[in-house]
Amino acid sequence: MPEDAQQEKPDHRTLVGQKRRIATEGRIVRAAMKVFAERGIDVPVIDDFIRESGVSRGTFYNYFRSTHELLDATIELILNETNRQIEQLLDGAIGPAERMATALILYLRKGFRDRDFAQFMAGMPYIGDFARRSLASDLTRGQRAGEFVFASRDIAEDMVLGTMQQCFRRIAEGAPGEGFERDVAVTILRGLGTSGEVIESVMANLRHRGRADKV
User: How far apart are CA 199 and CA 203, in angstroms?
Assistant: First the structure.
């Protein structure tokens, strides 16, 4: 093997250290989601996160310097992770309205399964860059395809995000009735100007494929 190839090969201890660091950061962030969900965004202090995650104070400060920095990281990691899980289930060939409905339903069903996630989403003050770019892209594709009709993409984003946040609040306060997540998806599609014919087709496809039952 050439000498330069040997030098480029990652050291085993380095790889183990990187994996351990990623795992510890994820542990702190997931503990933070629970703390933020239970206590709100502004109330918790560093000791709350240290206690919940079970790490030392020194370890915590190796990753985060403040509760605000931790909140930013929690929003980015939780939403990015959820978006990537959902993207794996979305077929690139389906139309924008069906992609939107599927993603909304999967997000809400995650909230039904994980009440901490629902509470965190209900109190989240903003969304991460990745999630916002993903939503903006879906709205733009839908508008270009003629499946969404709205005057302002910013207002459309606010409508989707505001409705979903209130729905997560309802889930956190007590599970709504059967079919809640599908009713939410239909309502949001209507708000985006999707025709009744397209909505009916979208929901029929979801029932047929069972796509929105997988997460």
Answer: 6
